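User: Let's play a game. I give you a shape written as tokens, and you guess the letters that built it. Ready? Here's round one.
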């Protein structure tokens, strides 16, 4: 080849570039993936809360039948029910607090007995129930429920609060009602009625 003659290069078309496509695809898939992951996490937490609420009412009822209902005993039972020794929130289950735990004292026919009609103490309740087990003020059962504290006249379901704010399902939590027989409120003949051992 002569020195003056240069080889002809083939003209190449510049390669077609798709700059940023991978980033866009990743962003679209990441939104879907993380929404799915966080949805699974919230669903699992809600299942945990539903199971825990049943345990909360069971613990509350078990503690409530051992002590006569006074203001301090009821407060201690509510705190014991949500796994606490002081007022506060149930762990991993916002907005449930000790204020959401409602204790009701029921007669033989499961009708609600208002606080003003309760016998004076555990021994008096035992005397009333032994005299007439169908008396209107004989406390036979304790009912524990998870209720919205805004309305004391009715037990409304509490709406679940999501931990992740961008997923708002507003699922109503169940009331997890537990009813247990009172027996003797922990009263032993010849002794003073016990305080709450919660």
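Assistant: Ready! My guess for every position:
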């Amino acid at each position: 080849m002569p020195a003056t003659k240069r080889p002809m290069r083939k003209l190449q078309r510049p390669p077609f570039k798709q700059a940023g496509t991978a980033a866009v695809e990743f962003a679209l898939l990441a939104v879907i993936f993380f929404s799915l992951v966080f949805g699974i996490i919230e669903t699992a937490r809600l299942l945990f809360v539903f199971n825990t609420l049943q345990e909360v009412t069971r613990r509350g009822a078990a503690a409530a039948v051992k002590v006569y209902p006074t203001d301090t005993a009821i407060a201690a039972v509510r705190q014991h029910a949500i796994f606490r020794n002081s007022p506060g929130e149930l762990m991993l289950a916002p907005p449930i607090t000790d204020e959401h735990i409602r204790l009701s004292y029921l007669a033989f026919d499961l009708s609600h007995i208002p606080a003003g009609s309760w016998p004076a103490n555990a021994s008096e309740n035992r005397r009333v129930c032994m005299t007439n087990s169908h008396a209107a003020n004989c406390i036979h059962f304790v009912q524990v429920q998870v209720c919205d504290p805004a309305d004391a006249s009715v037990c409304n379901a509490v709406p679940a609060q999501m931990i992740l704010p961008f997923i708002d399902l507003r699922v109503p939590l169940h009331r997890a009602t537990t009813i247990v027989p009172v027996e003797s409120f922990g009263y032993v003949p010849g002794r003073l009625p016990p305080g709450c051992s919660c």
